[in-house]
Specification:
385 residues; mainly alpha; Dna Ligase, domain 1; 4 domains; two-stranded antiparallel ribbon; 16 helices; 6 strands
């Protein structure tokens, strides 16, 4: 009887424990379900929130950057640029709001055939307008107004061009002159313009291989333009202007270096077309007789200074550029000659009269020519009176 009661109590206790465990599991299940519900709800809220934010971001990014800003901004699209790279450039220039959205927009509409070149865009433009302009094609040259201009005047030296560059660009004269000595850069230019630069690069004792090759003209400078690009534009202009005369230079048994050397002297010695051609004839007559050209321009270049009157000491300076002492053409040009001076080299006048000397009257500008030294001294003396 006692054992029976004991068994009954044990069975009752077991049922209670089982019930209690069941209740605990049910509580845990409700808690887990509740937590899962909250997590699902939070995820759903986040999805909706990010979806709304993403939608709004995309919609906003599809709008013009600034509908009220009609300023023209220049953008260069290099050859071979991908849509992603183009989008990045447009975002950097603040033409579009988002490069990612622009790239998605282009892909979703299957836009292709974007062209390389220089473009101008406005922040007020829509993506459709921007795409249409990119498909139409850009310019091979800058379109926007330059930040500044670099004027290379006729008859100036490399050093003087350095002064102009330092005043009109962020680059110093020291940086410019260092580039003039940069062999890697010079070789690159020679490879691009061999007919123009081969004779200069092959010449010895040259101060600056690009002396005479930075063509006199006005060159636009744009923000961000490299110094190499600016100088390359000057050399390219020389090549463009001189190319039509390369055959004539060869026909006269001259190198481009020799032709520009004579042209640089003529540029500073003569003013009118007639006198330039006459002076050209004098120089050729002296070269034929193996006489020094005896140009003051050469001595001043050797001294690296301008002087109104040269002394005997000046004309005796030891320098390959001193054409008072040295015969021939010298190492190379003394400044940047104009195309008219180059034409004077190719078309010398009155060589048959045998003129070997000339002197200019600084008051009137008239140039007198002589066939011998005594006549030259007599003329020079009479002008000085």
């Amino acid at each position: 009887m006692a054992n029976s009661d004991k068994n009954k109590r044990s069975a009752s206790s077991g049922r209670q424990q089982a019930l209690q465990k069941k209740q605990e599991r049910e509580t845990e299940r409700r808690v887990v379900n509740s937590i899962a519900g909250w997590i699902i709800a939070i995820i759903a809220i986040l999805i909706v929130t990010f979806g709304v934010l993403g939608y709004n971001y995309v919609q906003e990014s599809l709008q013009p950057m600034n509908s009220n800003n009609h300023q023209e901004i220049e953008v260069k699209i290099p050859i071979g640029s991908s849509n992603k790279e183009i989008a990045s450039r447009l975002q950097e220039k603040k033409i579009i709001r988002s490069a990612t959205v622009f790239n998605y927009y282009v892909k979703s509409h299957n836009y292709t055939d974007f062209q390389a070149g220089y473009y101008t865009f406005k922040p007020s433009m829509t993506l459709t307008q921007i795409v249409a302009r990119l498909q139409k094609g850009g310019s091979s040259e800058h379109i926007a107004r330059p930040d500044n201009n670099v004027l290379v005047r006729e008859g100036v030296t490399v050093e003087q061009i350095g002064d102009v560059i330092s005043k009109n660009t962020p680059y110093s004269k020291k940086q410019f002159l260092a580039l003039m000595k940069n062999q890697k850069f010079l070789k690159q230019l020679q490879n691009n313009y061999p007919e123009l630069l081969n004779s200069s690069m092959n010449s010895k004792n040259v101060r600056y291989h690009l002396e005479g090759y930075l063509f006199p003209a006005t060159y636009p400078y744009y923000s961000g333009m490299s110094l190499q690009k600016l100088v390359t534009n000057m050399v390219a202009k020389s090549n463009q202007e001189l190319s039509p005369y390369f055959d004539q230079i060869k026909a006269k048994n001259l190198t481009v270096q020799q032709a520009l050397t004579l042209a640089s002297l003529i540029e500073r010695e003569g003013v009118t077309e007639k006198d330039r051609r006459m002076i050209s004839g004098v120089f050729f007559n002296r070269i034929d007789q193996n006489m020094p050209l005896q140009s003051d321009i050469s001595v001043m270049y050797a001294l690296n200074k301008h002087k109104r009157k040269l002394s005997n000491k000046d004309t005796s300076v030891k320098s390959p550029y001193n054409l008072y002492k040295n015969t021939g053409f010298g190492p190379g040009p003394f400044n940047t000659p104009s195309i008219n001076s180059v034409l004077a080299v190719l078309n010398p006048a009155q060589r048959d009269k045998g003129y070997l000397y000339f002197v200019a009257d600084l008051k009137t500008g008239k140039v007198y020519y002589s066939t011998n030294y005594s006549q030259h001294l007599e003329t020079d003396s009479s002008i000085g009176q």
